[in-house]
Structures are given as structure tokens and as C-alpha cells.
Amino acid sequence: MRADRVLSLLLLLQARGRMSAADLADRLEVSRRTVYRDVDALSAAGVPVAAEPGPNGGIYLLEGWRTDLTGLTEPEVEALFTSAAGPAFESAMGKLAAALPRESASRAGRIRERLLVDSEAWGRRGSAPAHLRVVQDAVFSDRRLRLRYRRAEAEVVDRTVDPLGLVLKAGTWYLLGLVGGEERVFRLSRIESAEALDEPARRPPKFDLAGAWGQRAARWDSGRAGYRAQVRPRAEALPLLLRVAGDRVVGREGPLVSLDFPAREAAAAFLASFGAQLEVVEPVELRADLARLGHDLAGLYS
């Protein structure tokens, strides 16, 4: 018995009253046999759900229990929309939103406009970042954020952000927002401090979070985000570089290899992992980034 499906069944019954097994099966995208099996399981668990055969029959909740189910509070609705991930969960949330009372559905819709759960694999899962609650509150209340943010090369910068939405990608949280009118992405685990300001956030009308994130992710995945580096690996490191870099490799010319990255910070982090096994030929600022990283590491471990 799938918990998301059964919860959807209960909410459909409380919102619409008596429904036929065929209607429930169609809404839940399962067979009528599955609907009856879930009803039997709920009844055995003590939920007062009944099924009557015949043209005027149907499945319904007994009077007196239905009002308990309608009492979903806003925090409960928010928890439903922020506590899980995956295609099945996203599908269930669509069914829940359709079945919720108007006030709760409005709240749920607002959350879905500002929170995207992207379940496609993109690396290892991480733990919840320290400033998730502050950022989340600012996103949902449309308030500006003041962030101290640590870039990949360890430089810390201050940013005032108009938050547009949160994205959970393979266990890692990202904030999509505007800085000076330009769209930026912040990885929450790199936020040193976060403060919600008493200023309304500037949000473009009809902003599509899923669409904006999809475009950005497509650029990253295809390696066309605009930062190219040329490196000279040692002969013994070349096979490893080609294997690990994968489709980041966009060209080879003699001993030189060209790679595309979504950003300068990503290039520095990736290439630093090879240590002295490769040399960055260009861009010059990327060489400076790696020199600074090397200096910092030497000072730390000498």
C-alpha cells in the first residue's frame, strides 16, 4: 500500500464526497482492483471508509471523520510539499493539490511556485544546510536576503538577493535569485550567513522556476555554460583526465586538452583535484585561482 497514493485517495474522498471506484482509479492512475485493495487496507487499519456496490453506490468516508481530515494547517501543507523527493512524490503532490480545500490549495500552489525537487542524479547527496530555514522563509514570504557567500575558491562575498525559488538537486540545495537584476544560483552549503531583510523581493511576474532551472541545468549538462579552460596534463594523467572529465572534453590539440565548465569556480575546483598532474594553460585568471589555492594549501599543511 503506497502512502502517497492512499493519502491522495483520502483527500479526494474528503473533497468530493462519494466517488465510484472507476473515478478514483482514473484520478489515481491505478486499477479498480488496486483501489478496492487500498480501501480494504484502510478499513482494516481503522479508517472509517465504506464501499457500496451498485449504480448508486460508491466509496465514501463516514460522517464525523471527514472533518478531521479537512483540518490541514498551513505548516502541514508546507511539510507535505517539502519533505520528500522523486517523480512519484511530485505526481502525488499534483493529486494532493487538486484535492485540497481552496485555502490550503492556494498555499500549496504558492509553495510549488517557489520550490522545485529535481530528482535526477547529479552527484552525492548532502545534509540539510545550516541556513536552509532562513532562506526558505525568505523565499516563501517574498523578502530580500542578505548573504555572505563562499565561492568555490574560498573567496567570501556579500550579496543582496531577490530570491526566486529553491531547488533540491540530488540532495543538494540551491537558491535561484536575482542580484542586480541578473539571475544567479547559490549553493546553500556555501552560505556563511543569511539574513532576511524587511524589504519586499522583486519577483518577475509569472516567473517559471522549473523552466528557469531547466534551461540552466541544460547548459551545465551540455557544457555550454561559457567557461572554457585549456590544460596540459602529464602523459600518465591523460587517461584519468579523459575518463573523469567525460563530455567536458571539447577538444584536443597535441598535448593540450580543452574542457568546458559551467563556471570559473567549477573549473578551479575540478582541476585542483589533479594537483601537479596537469597545468592550466589558459585562461590566465584560472591559473591565478589555482596558484592561490596552492598557496593556501601549502600554508595550511607546511
Tell me what you see in this structure.
The protein folds into 3 domains: 1-70, Arc Repressor Mutant, subunit A (Orthogonal Bundle), CATH 1.10.10; 132-222, SH3 type barrels; 227-301, no CATH class. It is built from 12 helices and 12 strands. It has helices spanning 3-16, 21-28, 32-44, 66-70, 74-82, 87-99, 102-114, 132-141, 209-222, 238-245, 264-272, 284-301; strands at residues 49-52, 58-61, 115-118, 143-150, 156-169, 172-179, 182-187, 191-200, 227-233, 249-253, 256-261, 278-282. The strands form 3 sheets. Strands 3, 4, 5, 6, 7 and 8 form a 6-stranded mixed beta sheet that branches. Helix 6 packs antiparallel against helix 7 and helix 11 (264-272) crosses helix 12 (284-301). Mean pLDDT is 77; it is low at 66-74, 76-81 and 83-89.
**What is the CATH architecture descriptor of the largest domain?**
Roll
Structural category is alpha+beta
Element string (H = helix, E = strand): HHHEEHHHHEHEEEEEHEHEEHEH
* Subunit organisation of the chains: single chain
CATH topology name of the largest domain, in short, is SH3 type barrels
What can be said about the biggest beta sheet?
A: 6 strands, mixed
Fraction of residues in β-strands: 25-35%
Overall pLDDT score: 77
Q: What number of domains?
A: 3
Distance between the termini: 59 Å
The count of β-strands is 12
Annotation field: number of helices = 12
Uncertain stretches of 5 or more adjacent residues: 66-74, 76-81, 83-89
